[in-house]
Write the C-alpha cells for this entry.
Amino acid sequence: MVKVIVGTQFGDEGKGRIIELFSKSADVVARYQGGANAGHTLIIDGNTVVFHLVPCGIIYPNTMCVIGNGVVIDPEALINELTNLEKYGFKAGKRFFISNSAHIVMPYHKSKDDITGKIGTTHKGIGPCYEDKYGRRGIRMIELLYPEFFKEKLKTLVSSVDFQPMYEQYCKYGEILAPYIADTTALMNKWIQEKKEVLLEGAQGLLLDIDHGTYPYVTSSNPHSGGACTGLGISPTCIDEVIGVVKAYTSRVGEGPMPTTMAPDIEEAIRSRGKEYGATTGRPRRCGWLDIVLLKRVLMTNGIKKIVLTKLDTLDEMSKIKICTKYVPEANFALPELMYKTQPVYEELDGWQTPISDIRDYKKLPAATKKYVEKISELLNVEIVAICIGPQKDATIFL
Ligand code: IMP
C-alpha cells in the first residue's frame, strides 16, 4: 500500500505527529519536496528532537528512510541533523537513502533568499535553489561523488575568491554523505513492486504549493500529492491513498492572504494555547478560523478522501467557534489582491469550554465537540479517520 500524507492548509497542521504515527507500520518513509524549511519536533524519552530533512520514520529501527529527488538538500543541515539523531540513538546506517538527483542548497542560495522579506520565507535557500534547478544550473548530490565534475561546474557559478573554500567544504560534505547517496527512484519502484508499506511525506502545506497555493506567497515546490510522483520517480498509478491533515483552525507563518483571520484577542489566545510559533524560525503564526472554502478546493485537487483532524483541544476555551463556508465576493484563488479583499461568511457553533485532552473514547467527547467534528466531515464530504485532542502521544482517537 502506498499512502501520501499531506498538510492541507498553510503547513503546521500537526502533520509530523501523524506521519510519526503512520510510520510505525510502514516499511518505507519518503520525503518528496521542500527542504530544511520544514520543521517537526518530537519529544522522545523526554528529549526534544527536531527534524528538518530526515523522515521521522528514522526513529523506528527497521524503517527505510528516503530523501527523494524532489527535495533540496542543505548538506550541512542534513549532517547536523544526522549527528543529532545519532546522539539520541537513531542511526541512519544502511536504511537511509538520499537521491543522487536531489539538488543541493549552496551558501549563495541562502544569502539571496527573500532579501526584501516580501514573501517571509524561512531563509533556508529553498527558492533560490529551486530557481537554479529549473534554470538548469543546479548542483545535484551525485556531483559530490565526482569532485572533478563538481569542480568545473562550481567554477562557473561562484567568484574565484569564494571557489576554493566552498569547493573543499562541499567535497567534505560529499565524503560524509557518500554512503547514503543512491538511485532512490530504482529503490522506491522495487519496494513498491514488492508490496511494501510505503508512506510518502509531504512537507509544508497544500496552500503553499507553487502551482496551487496562494502564489506568490508560497514555497517553491509542489507539496501537492502529485509532487510525490515527480519528487520520487514513481507512477501516479501506484498511489493507493492520499490522507490530508487538517488543523481544527487555520494558521499561517510568513506573508500572504488568510481570509479567516480571528479577532486579535481570540487569535492571541489560540496562538498561546496552540503554541503557534514556527518550528524552523520561531516566528509567531497568524491564526484564523477553519476555512472550508480553501479546504474543499485542496481536497478536490489532491484526491483526498480521508482526513485526520488535529489540535481540537486548542479550541477548548472558546465559547463560540466559527467555520468559514463561503466568501463574498466569491474567491479568486489565483490573485492574492482579490483574496485580501474577500470577506469570509461564517457559520457559528457553540464551543465546549471544557478540557478534552484526557478523553480516549469518541462517544465520551462533549456533544459540542462531536458536533464540530461532524459538521466538518459533512461540509467537506470526507471521512475523518482520526482526531488529535492533546499534546500527549496517545491523545489521538481513531474513528
Ligand atoms: P520558503 O519555503 O522558505 O521559501 O518560504 C515560503 C513560504 O512558505 C513562507 O511563507 C514560509 O513561512 C512558508 N513555509 C515554508 N516551510 C514551511 C513549513 O514547514 N511550515 C509552514 N510554513 C512554511
About this structure: The chain has a mean pLDDT of 96. The pocket of inosinic acid is lined by residues 11-12, 37-39, 119-122, 124, 126-127, 203-204, 208, 219-220, 253-254 (CB under 6 Å). The longest helix spans residues 160-177.
